Amino acid sequence: MHVLPRVRELEERFADSVTVIGVHAGKFATERHTERIAEACDRLGVVHAVVNDRQFRVWRDYAVQAWPTVAVIDPEGYVAVVEPGEFDVEEMAGEIERIAARARSRGTLMPGPDPVASTLERHTGPLRFPTRAVVEGRSLWIADTGHGRVLECAWDASQHAASIVSEYAGFVEPRGLAALDGRMYVADRGGHQVWRLEGGERVNVAGTGRIGDYAIAAGPALSADLRSPWGLSPRGGMLAIAMAGTHQLWTLDTADGDLRLLAGAGGENIADGPLERAALAQPTGLALLPLGSLALADCETSAVRIADDAEVMTLVGTGLFEFGDRDGVGDEVLLQHCEDVASHGAALAVADTYNDRIKRVDPLTRGCGPWPGEAGESGAVREPGGVWSDGSTLLVADTGHHRIVTVAGDGALTEVRLS
Q: In this structure, are residues 361 and 304 in contact, taking their beta carbons and an 8 Å threshold?
């Protein structure tokens, strides 16, 4: 996700001499369906051609070793550059200019527009790929991610209805929402910042807007280069941040404006232990538990974990390449790229995103199974990105269906009417 904006910049800069072809070799089973890839292209604004390399044939032909990898092929068909990881835009631009100049001198470059015209039908509607919904007081807040905005709505729970009061626009990819001391905060994953929303205005409280490296410095939040802040939750008077891009949890002291590391050594893996030595893998969702611990959705390991004041513990999830849809207890359980978690009574509601359903996890027994009723049925929701609960009301951001739904006690789903 960090490479796509860089590819887009090069795509626009060299529009007359470079044709971009994406090759998608999906790690998760759901990512290998062409329909899902098209939806992801719609969500991410991808307009170039994309190959579904579901059997990893192109991957093997080019001896690729890592996600992402960029290869530059010259007009004569030779592989001129292979760059694994998050390449530097200016260095890559220099390579392209060098290759293009040589091709022009040989008469092999044929300038012109991309020969592949996008035929992708993009979703239109009041919401577009919403990823979070939370209630604070009499307001329903929605991260309308596909439109790059956050909506504040007057909330009528009895009628499952909401009317827009304020629109906070200008975000790149708003994700996590959390209320702290009566104020709403939003994590802009794609903009690498955290904002406070109030009175129709947004105030930057963390991040410079530049993507950081894998070593974020503790201290003043406004001078820190964040890296894909995703989930948010209040905790102990502070704002906890799931920093997916560094595989860590951080806290923001909104009083003094400082960032502090909460958990995660920085490597992408699943390993329990003391907070600063534990290994996380792209944490995307957070939920405050009754005794003050944090539940987290560790999506790249399809895991649900707990961080208390001393250590990180795993409820379900065993490895980076262990995923599926299997109920059971503890290490028997398989989820698929779960993106969010909410504390609902004595259980955890889990957005089992790539399995298109909501799961129920018991934090005491580590037992996991489908949420009762419709919410737990596969396909009732589509790639849900967020769940939220105040203990009685359970909301789901039904991302792939472009809607917010409430979950009744029997698991029945009701779409929130937005006006």
A: yes
